[in-house]
Specification:
- It is a single chain.
- The protein has 263 residues and is an alpha/beta fold.
- It folds into two domains: 12-94, no CATH class; 98-251, Rossmann fold, CATH 3.40.50.
- Helices cover 45% and strands 10% of the residues.
- The chain contains nine helices and six strands.
- The chain has a four-stranded parallel β-sheet, with helices on both faces.
- Strand 3 (127-131), helix 6 and strand 4 form a beta-alpha-beta unit.
- Helix 2 runs parallel beside helix 3 (50-63).
- The radius of gyration is 23 Å and the shape is globular.
- The protein starts with a helix and ends in a 12-residue tail after the last helix.
Length: 263
């Protein structure tokens, strides 16, 4: 992720990336060194075990490859801020603790309740995302699930009203997702192209799309659901906005939203 963010600062670069995850021992490192030699380049690593990282640094030095320990500056800053030394144990972020199993459960729930499926169990969700087709409901749901939230999502279709259960929910935070009609038409056209579908339908008709979005916005307003405009947002930004709404709801003294909050 850090490499991707840094590469975004450069124009017209064609980079081939190789990824070797979960390197926790010198034995594992020895097995991948031939691959590193066959694919030379800048080496970014997050190894924390002193012996393993020394072996990697020695190997990179012999191969003439620059090696950058990208966690060092962050770890040093955290040590100063927290007043304690880092433990230096490999794989700490992959521990199978309660948080890990909660994420697994959230992902399973979210996959099982995608696209309006399993509405009978929506009360068990933490979040329910509602919006017209191709308004980024599914990828946002999966991202939130990876953060430990149980998420269901429902497509809003003018000709097919959602189940009444949607309007009776008490536990989940229901969030409406909307977008600009021009952007939505573009996304839907691209979707049809990937399916080799050339027929022009109401699915990509400008006026019909506007009607869909109006229908969805009216539903959001009628039910007092907070609304997020995803037109210029990445999935990560949309998910962050949803999480912020969850925190606000949790901290609110009354525990409810009043009116529509557009973000």
């Amino acid at each position: 992720m850090l490499a991707k963010a840094a590469l975004a600062q450069f124009e017209d670069v064609d980079v081939v990336r190789h990824f070797w995850p979960m390197v926790r021992s010198s034995q594992h490192l020895e097995r991948l060194l031939p691959e590193l030699k066959a694919n030379p380049g800048l080496v970014l690593f997050t190894l924390v075990n002193p012996e393993t990282r020394r072996r990697l640094e020695d190997a990179c030095s012999k191969l003439g490859l620059p090696a950058v320990p990208i966690l060092d500056r962050i770890t040093e800053a955290l040590e100063q801020a927290l007043g304690q030394e880092a433990r230096g144990r490999p794989g700490q972020q992959h521990r199978m603790d309660k948080a890990y199993f909660d994420r697994v459960e959230a992902i399973q729930f979210t996959i099982a309740h995608d696209d309006g499926i399993g509405w009978e169990n929506w009360e068990e969700a933490d979040i329910v995302l509602a919006g017209v087709s191709r308004s980024s409901k599914t990828p946002t749901s999966i991202y939130l699930a990876n953060r430990g939230y149980k998420v269901a999502n429902i497509p809003l279709v003018v000709e097919s009203p959602p189940p009444k259960k949607l309007f009776e929910l008490r536990n989940p935070l229901v969030v409406g997702l909307t977008t600009a009609p021009e952007r939505l038409v573009q996304i839907r056209r691209n979707r049809l192209l990937t399916l080799n579908e050339q027929t022009q339908t109401a699915y990509v008709d400008n006026e019909k799309v506007k009607e869909e979005l109006t229908f969805a916005r009216r539903m959001f307003a009628d039910n007092g659901w907070p609304v997020i405009d995803v037109t210029r947002r990445s999935i990560e930004e949309t998910a962050a906005a949803v999480i912020r709404l969850c925190s606000q709801r949790k901290n609110a003294s009354e525990g409810e939203f009043e009116g529509v909050k557009a973000i």
